[in-house]
Amino acid sequence: MADDEIRPASVPAGRRAVVLGVTYDVGRLLGVVAAAMASLVVVALASGEAATVPGLAVALAITAGLCVAFVRVGRLNRQPSRAYGMVVAASGWLVVACVGALPFLAVAWTYRTGGAASFGPATAPFVHPVNALFESMSGFTGTGLTVAPAPAHLPRVLQWWRSLTEWIGGIGVIVLTAAVLSRPWSGSLTLYEGDARSKRLHFRALPRLRTIVGILAGFTVGSVALLLLAGLPPWAALNDAMTGLTTGGFTVTDGSIGAYHDPVVSLALVPVMTLGSIAFPVLYLALHGDYDALLGDVQVRWFVGLVVAGTLALTGVLALVRSTGTLGADAVAAVFQFVSALSCTGFSTVSIGGLPSTAKLVLILAMVVGGSAGSTVGGIKLVRLITLSYGSIHRIRGSFYPAHAVRPLRIGDRLLTPARAAVEIQEAAIVSFLWVVFLLGGIAVLQTVFLLQGTPHPLLDVVFDVASAQGNVGLSSGLTAASLPWIGKLTLVGNMWIGRLEIVPTIVFLRGIVAGLNATA
């Protein structure tokens, strides 16, 4: 039977090709997740948690089965557009997060039905699919917000899965897939662009995408060694290195990094989080001896400047409001907490809910900005703040020049023509504006949920947690927990998803769904 005979008349051929292409590429993403999920069986057996293996095997079988089904049903798109890449990115994050929830469900139900008292209370929240989805989306988006009441009491198999989702998510499931499975004609570079990472990477050669995984693995090994020297036990060093370097924020302790009560550990993690905030291409060039690329990168310079300013501001606030502790302890806490927020890592050594409003506001601003474009961070990215800052100054200075004057805009080592400057400033302004719009939407929904529940919370705390979710940070003022109503959790899931995709791919994806519904109506 000819293809035209079985094709639904209501679905145009072009749209059908897009759907088949997206199905195929999402199937490839699921292959990566299935390979990662297989490691859970090894961890379960090595940790004496063999009871979880049957459930994990079911989760792995479902994931692998979906991978095979999607790839077989779909068709490779040999000429993907930029919009197509965005649709794959947006749909890929959703599907991967849903599938990534399966191990949480499997392990939780294993201990619930088996009556194991050791892990039952810790895994109980993940019996509910919304909680499992929340944890999975938080992991794959590199956010680090959690509904686990006691991460230290989770079975190791779930501790590992939380860390692994952030390690994979930190470099992007799509980037990892492109690096491992790319072919010259498969459009992997377009998918990389769809993941909102190539805009200013200057990282055009496709083979170099494979080096991202190598760079991350090498830095992970180095980070583990550093944390071991700082005094952490091997399991904690491994997990904290994975989530710190990829600016994720999950930990295997209750109370995050504050559980160690050790300033040496805090200071050791500062360079780890900072590495995750630098664009991969810059790290790549620095590793190959081009240190000017690192020292001369405008985003790196701004990152350092903001860390200095933010640390001084937080130190001053903590010194004024704390009745105990030394100035040195306040400074260590301040630099750690500000770097954690600006790098969108989400580690904490203090109780965020107990901080004064001024300190929370400083951290909110850091979470909204984020680190370098091309790294693992969230937020609007430093490059957009830089572009808008230089652009605003350039525009104001233009008032003192004749109207016919040609004035290029210099940003770092780049000299932009007026036309190119206008395009980049417009892009930065649009993305930043939309970022704030979605942020306000999440704040409105969450605050409404609390009001209807009869448990209103301070607006600043609501702003803090929504900004943390959309910035893919993971710090919480105490509102994000298993007790949060399911509507609030799904709202934060949406903010995490939107924040990871940087708005535009989300809009393209939703527009495609609406167009598809209209076509079949």
Features:
single chain, 521 residues, mainly alpha, 23 helices, 2 strands, disordered N terminus
Structural features, described:
Helices cover 67% and strands 1% of the residues. With 521 residues, it is an all-alpha fold. It has a two-stranded antiparallel ribbon with strand order 1-2. Strand 1 and strand 2 (414-416) form a beta hairpin. The longest helix has 36 residues, at 418-453.
Report the total helices: 23
Radius of gyration, whole Å: 23 Å
Strand order in space, largest sheet: 1-2
- The H-and-E topology, N to C, reads as HHHHHHHHHHHHHHHHHHHEEHHHH
Number of strands: 2
Please give the alpha-carbon distance between the first and last residues: 27 Å
In round numbers, the mean pLDDT is 85
Residue fraction in strands: under 5%
Percent helix: 55-70%
Based on secondary structure, the structural category is mainly alpha
Task: Name the poorly predicted regions.
Answer: 1-12, 176-193, 196-207
Approximate shape? globular
Biggest sheet features = 2 strands, antiparallel
